[in-house]
Amino acid sequence: MSETQKVSASDNKKKDAGGTTILFFLIGVAISLALGWIIFPKLLYSKKSQPIDFSHVVHSEAVGDCDSCHFFREDGTFSGAPTLAECIDCHEEAQGDTEDERIFVEEYVAQNKEVPWLIYSEQPDSVFFSHAAHVKKAKMSCESCHGEIGTSDALPIYEENRITGYSRNIWGKNIAGIKKHTWDRMKMNDCGECHEEEIGDKGSCFQCHK
Amino acid sequence: MKIDRRSFLSLGAGATAGLAFSPLPWKLMDDSSIWTQNWPWVPVPTDGEASYVDTVCSLCPGGCGITIRKIDDRVVKAEKKDSDNANSGICILGLSSPQLLYSPSRIKTPLKKIEGKWVKISVKEAVAEIAEKLKDLRKDKLSHTLACISGSSSGTVPALFERFLKAYGSPNFITVPSVKDVYKLVFSLSLGSPYVPVFDIANSDFVVSFGTGLLDGWGNPAQAFKAHSILKDNKKKLIQIEARLSNTAAKADKWIPIKPGTEGVLALGMANIIIEKRLYLNKNILFDSVTEGFEEFKALVAKDYSVKAVAEITGVKQEDITALVEDFMKAQSPVALFGRGEGTIPGSLHEMMAVNFLNALAGNFNKAGGVHLLSDNSYINWTEPILDDTAYYGINKKRLDGAGDGKYFLAKHLLNRLPEVLNSSETSPINMLFVTDSNPFYTMADTKLVREAFEKIPFIVSFSSYMDETASMADIILPNHFFLERYQDVVATCGLKPAVGLSKPVVNPIFDTIHSGDAVIFIAKALGGTIAESFAWDDYKACLDETLEAKKDIMDKELFWVDESGVFNAFADAESSGKFEFINDKIRQTKPYTFVEAEGEKKQYPLTLIRFDSMRIASGYTANSPFMTKTVADTVIKENDIFVEINPKTAAEYNLTDGSKALLTTPKGKAQVRVHLYEGIMQGIISMPSGLGHSGYDNYLAGKGININELIGQIEDPASGFDAAWGIRAVLVRV
Q1: Which stretches in chain A have pLDDT values below 50?
Q2: Which in A4, B147, B166, B194 has the greatest CB count within 10 A?
Q3: What distance in Å separates the CA atoms of residue B152 and residue B471, rounded to the nearest whole number?
Q4: Contact: A20, B7; criterion CB under 8 Å
């Protein structure tokens, strides 16, 4: 074998080795991307159903706007998810013959037991949020943060973050945190974004983290 | 294609690079930070509906109108009631009431001590056992050997205990005395009726305070702070006379340091100057027509209280005394305050009478900015209890404390005499003791003597809500509800008028406790006979409703019922001569004017130890909350070490430096302390706070500092018999 042939074979070997390295590099990238974008979100969230199903449409047709059930108390605090006290007026007796209605009346109303609703928008305790300041003062609509839940016929599946215990609605459906609507995410940056747009300032830490 | 080590390294590098472009690390970082906030031991307040309930605070005698904020059924905050007319206000102790309600040292169920250990019993069992023992005493004609120590003398609960003792057959109902008892004596002697003074500080233009802790917890602290603020806003003067630069002195326009215990001498010296210079004539009072014994008083002060003599005794410069008198009498509405510190120690009767003579000479009774006199009208109009032969026999026995008899003819109750009486007899003259709303083993001076005395008592029943020092020595505890869990009437003042407030339950009792009012009624019913007949009410609530009658509707709405008729209108109202009496037969019976000196030999104990009161340390039946202890400066208490304040010049004489450890010895005891150099205390005097050094309660309080009562003895006031000790002689040695 001539010297030239030797050099060329060695070059080919090097090229081959270089190709393998790149290929493995790309495989590594691909595995990580698949893990991060597809598998990780599936592992991170567990799916839970609400104790009973509930139709916002049926109720808003029957009792009116959101604030009929999600009302402000006399002292300005927000009541959040309704308690039995609010439901009992109509549901002391079963309304309709669905299985959910039967469970609600028999297992909760009759036993005076509160329904352990899973709250999609529940924030950590380190966050102070005033509904009054946003709804009453800034005149924001419920949809701005809660989306179109008010027009839904059934409650969505509750996806619970296995690490934090909070709902997926806080981070948003999109694992990259990309949003199309204002209600797609409820993280601190989303609050800041809106505050910056509306009042020109993200606000200070102690406004929310008291 | 050859797969080698490099390929795997490359795979790893690719995977790492890929991860950086995936959401995984960023999301995990965010989630793990939230996860750390949700560890189970991180306290999180439960969410719920907020509500507000108004009630009256009964943690001190102030009786403030407060509002409790609740989340669902949990009390989360105590606030001042938002009202101008309901004695509304709150102090640091009232603010602590949620902590006190949920305190770990609350007694959760009735307890019985068996072989030194506490055993849970039911209310029924406790009541039955107490009743059984009481029946045995009655059988042996020993009903008078039942005694009761009550923290308060006003309101229906103390009245129920007093009624019980009477119906049972014992004269020995004893209340814990305070400065209010001496206030009443002052006016009893000089105006013929036990009026309770309310000082109109807010409308005064010159306030001279003889050691009164206006900003250190005196009277109703919230109202005192408010009045002080108005005085300051109006740019009027406050002069504070005391040995230590207290908070009140620090905020005053002038602090006049005085040798402790000689305040009364200064007041008489001032009276002498006023009379000598005929300054009282400026006040346009027809002096002869409204006073009695003036000439004799004039001769007395002229003889013994010349400005020179007074300056020597008190350590106040002659020119300062004269200037003070001039300013006081020049003012339109001057007032002289008396009652030392926060007023928990009754103090010297003569000292207070001496200061009150200044008010008389300034003619400020019932005038704006002066001293307003309120009648101690009782709204409790129960029929007399029914007495059987045993009860008659028992109540006609002499009171153990000697109050109302012989040289103690002025006093109604003399708790301070009880330890001596108990210790001087071989067997205990008390066979059973009820202790309600008080913690005498802690609050009484000379703790060692008190303990020795009370250990002799064979059976003690405590009604305390807390495992305090007294409760831990008891044989049976029937724990009372905390004030936020119970109905109770609270005697207070609204502005310058007497009033009664209604404390209402804000939450249901959280433990298996029993209202002390119910406990007495149930014990009475268990005894049967005339005793049960004297307690016809079903329970305390029925008794309270019947007592308050129509007032209750007003109290439900406004929290307080104001007694418009309870204000003394003119001197002619007085039952005796209708005049202010400087000297009369009764006053003459109380021996010549004297000032109370500290116990101990000057040679052996060259220093003088005085106690000081602070808004941040509760020194009475209610002990400090953890929140309050957190606010105490580390020059007062640091971890478990208590500090003694000493003037730097005195400290230098004793080779003491700031923070150094020393042994404090008094004729009553010894304690290891640390030293805090403080220019705000007179030379030769050292001071310590009252309210620390608990042995009972919980880890937040027990073992913190020294209880000053262990170092100070009692000094019986020669005029009244009450404890008048303001300090004791002491020696401090560096260790």
Answers
A1: 1
A2: B147
A3: 17
A4: yes
Q: Which residues contact B655 (CB under 8 A, 6 or more apart)?
A: B734
Q: Is there a domain that residue B515 lies in?
A: yes
pLDDT at B5: 87
- Both B554 and B459 in a single domain? yes
User: Per-residue pLDDT tens for B216-273?
Assistant: 999 999 999 999 999 999 999 999 999 999 999 999 999 999 999 999 999 999 999 9
Q: What is the 3-state secondary structure (H, E, C) of B488-542?
A: EEEEEEECCEEEEEEECCCCCCCCCCCCHHHHHHHHHHHHCHHHHHHCCCCCHHH
Written as one letter, the residue type at B560 is F
Q: Which of B339, B370, B326 is nearest to B241 (CA)?
A: B339
Do B400 and B501 have their domain in common?
yes
> Could you give phi then psi for residue B448, rounded to 5 degrees?
-65, -45
Task: Please tell me whether residues B319 and B211 are part of one structural domain.
Answer: yes
Q: Is the pLDDT of residue B573 over 50?
A: no
Residues B223 and B369 grouped into a single domain = yes
Domain count for chain B: 4
**Residue A46 at interface with chain B, using a CB cutoff of 8 Å:** no
CA nearest A15 in B: which residue? Answer: B1
Q: Which residues contact residue B336 at a Cβ distance below 8 angstroms, ignoring those fewer than 6 apart? A: B208, B209, B210, B267, B328, B355, B356, B358, B359, B362
Contact present, A177 and A187 (Cβ < 8 Å): yes
DSSP label of B458: S
**Contact: A75, B12; criterion CB under 8 Å:** no
Instruction: Report the predicted TM-score, pTM, of the whole model to 2 decimal places.
Output: 0.84
* Contact residues of B toward A, CB < 8 A: 1-4, 6-8, 10-19, 21-25, 27-28, 30-32, 34-35, 37-38, 44-45, 49-52
A148 shares contact with chain B (CB less than 8 Å): no
Question: What average pLDDT does chain B have?
Answer: 93
Q: Which two tokens stand for residue B622?
A: 């209610």
| Chain A contact probe: residue of B9, B21, B22 with most A CBs at under 10 A | B22
**Radius of gyration from C-alpha coordinates of chain B:** 29
Are β-strands B173-175 and B146-150 bridged in parallel, bridged antiparallel, or unpaired? parallel
- Report how far apart the first and last C-alpha atoms of chain B are (Å, whole number): 85
- From A12's Cα to the closest Cα of chain B, the distance in A is 11
Chain B touched by A21 (CB under 8 Å)? yes
Are β-strands B661-666 and B727-734 bridged in parallel, bridged antiparallel, or unpaired?
Answer: antiparallel
Query: What is the number of CB-based contacts under 8 A between chain A and chain B?
Result: 116
* Residue B232 sits in the same domain as residue B136: no
Range of the domain at B290: 196-374
Cβ contact A126–B37 (<8 Å): yes
B125: number of Cβ within 10 Å: 13
- A2's CB contacts (< 8 A; 6+ apart) are none
- Is the domain of B134 the same as that of B271? no
Same domain, B129 and B202: no
pLDDT above 90: residue B377: no
8 Å CB contact of A40 and B32: no
**Could you tell me what percent of chain B has a pLDDT over 90?**
81
